[in-house]
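ok, trying the design again with the full structure, not the truncated one.
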């Protein structure tokens, strides 16, 4: 397995468990870094950006997830937040992790990233109003497809399960049907995903899992890659609507030829691993193997929902309710977004997630949203209700004192109509 941020973890969320590991991941693959906090805060953050840490490795990623999560909860992001993301795009349509000076054109040294580009495409498609940026992003992703049908973290890099899955999600989010996914060298993205699957010749506990990518011709089970591949094999992106169709039930042999069948067997593998650890996944980061992997557990909840396995998603979702808030506070906007997307995929309320309003927490990490639709927290509602009650009493008193009680009577009649 190549040493990249995704091969070492997921996009660096496992690195959040150990700062030293975060430094290691950052040095290994800066373009795929995701939601872990940087070792130091940025001295001057760009206007419109979510989060308070250095965006060098994950600016586009965390911004995109934040916008997507807000959109699923009826929150219209601030224009400056969307404008910042649009401004990060290179002229050819690609995105890198972060451009400190968007006025400076991308050149050959700019590390164009399929994961960041896919996340940005999904976010801009969701918020609307930037069809040209979305189209350019999709065109670049199609141009970066490998001959095996998949994608690596950068153009020309060997395909991996995570990058292939996130690109599938971007294409699906912009209207590409499962049956119309682009092919290269006669291979589709699903052919690439199936090539990363551990089949019937693997040891029983690993059957159905996915590897990040081959290592010396060998496939090693990887929970992060499995969660990503299950979602991608179902033709889904970061946003999964609850109540979707179930994946196909099929034999081990047939699953090697059928993406949705492979998704179902991958979901079986994830459930088995989580059940063995108390309904969550464990970190694979060096030095943090005895720590829970909160971010990947959230992604697994989304994967199970994508595979039509809502009952299997309930226990890890409950575990997240009880154990994820401190992690999200430490990790920042992308972490809050992951939890919101997990709640959305399962029909849970992100404004009361284990007693925490995830939407309010996410909103507080960036510029004030432009508008919210039914997005008040429970505490805000209580305060509003109290304010209304107080003023209603005052108005009644004034009305009675002025001898105009008939106005109140008239309002009651109108309310009864």
């Amino acid at each position: 397995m190549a040493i990249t941020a995704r091969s070492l973890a997921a996009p660096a969320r496992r690195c959040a468990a150990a700062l030293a590991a975060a430094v290691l991941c950052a040095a290994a693959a800066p373009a795929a870094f995701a939601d872990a906090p940087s070792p130091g805060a940025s001295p001057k953050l760009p206007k419109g950006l979510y989060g308070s840490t250095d965006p060098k490795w994950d600016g586009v990623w965390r911004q995109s997830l934040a916008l997507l999560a807000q959109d699923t909860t009826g929150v219209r992001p601030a224009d400056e937040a969307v404008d910042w993301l649009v401004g990060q795009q290179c002229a050819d349509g690609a995105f890198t992790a972060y451009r400190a000076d968007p006025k400076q054109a991308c050149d050959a040294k700019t590390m164009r990233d399929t994961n960041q580009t896919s996340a940005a495409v999904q976010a801009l498609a969701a918020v609307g109003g930037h069809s040209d940026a979305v189209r350019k992003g999709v065109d670049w992703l199609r141009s970066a497809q490998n001959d095996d049908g998949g994608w690596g973290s950068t153009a020309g890099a060997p395909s991996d399960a995570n990058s292939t899955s996130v690109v599938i999600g971007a294409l699906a989010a912009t209207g590409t049907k499962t049956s119309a996914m682009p092919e290269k060298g006669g291979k589709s993205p699903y052919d690439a995903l199936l090539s990363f699957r551990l089949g019937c010749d693997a040891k029983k506990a690993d059957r159905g899992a996915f590897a990040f990518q081959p290592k010396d011709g060998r496939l090693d089970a990887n929970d992060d890659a499995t969660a990503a591949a299950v979602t991608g094999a179902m033709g889904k992106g970061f946003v999964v609507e609850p109540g979707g169709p179930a994946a196909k039930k099929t034999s081990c042999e047939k699953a090697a030829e059928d993406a949705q069948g492979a998704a179902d067997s991958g979901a079986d593998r994830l459930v088995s691993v989580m059940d063995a650890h108390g309904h969550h996944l464990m970190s694979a980061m060096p030095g943090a193997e005895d720590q829970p992997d909160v971010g990947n557990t959230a992604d697994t909840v989304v994967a199970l929902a994508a595979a039509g396995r809502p009952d299997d998603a309930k226990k890890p979702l409950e575990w997240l309710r009880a154990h994820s808030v401190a992690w999200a506070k430490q990790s920042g906007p992308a972490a809050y977004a992951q939890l919101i997307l997990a709640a959305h995929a399962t029909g849970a309320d992100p404004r009361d997630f284990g007693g925490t309003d995830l939407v309010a927490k996410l909103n507080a990490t960036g510029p004030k949203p432009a508008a919210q639709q039914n997005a008040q927290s429970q505490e805000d509602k209580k305060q509003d209700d109290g304010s209304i009650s107080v003023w209603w009493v005052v108005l009644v008193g004034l009305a009675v004192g002025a001898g105009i009680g008939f106005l109140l009577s008239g309002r009651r009649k109108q309310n009864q109509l």
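Keeping the full-length input from now on. The chain has two domains: 5-375, 384-417.
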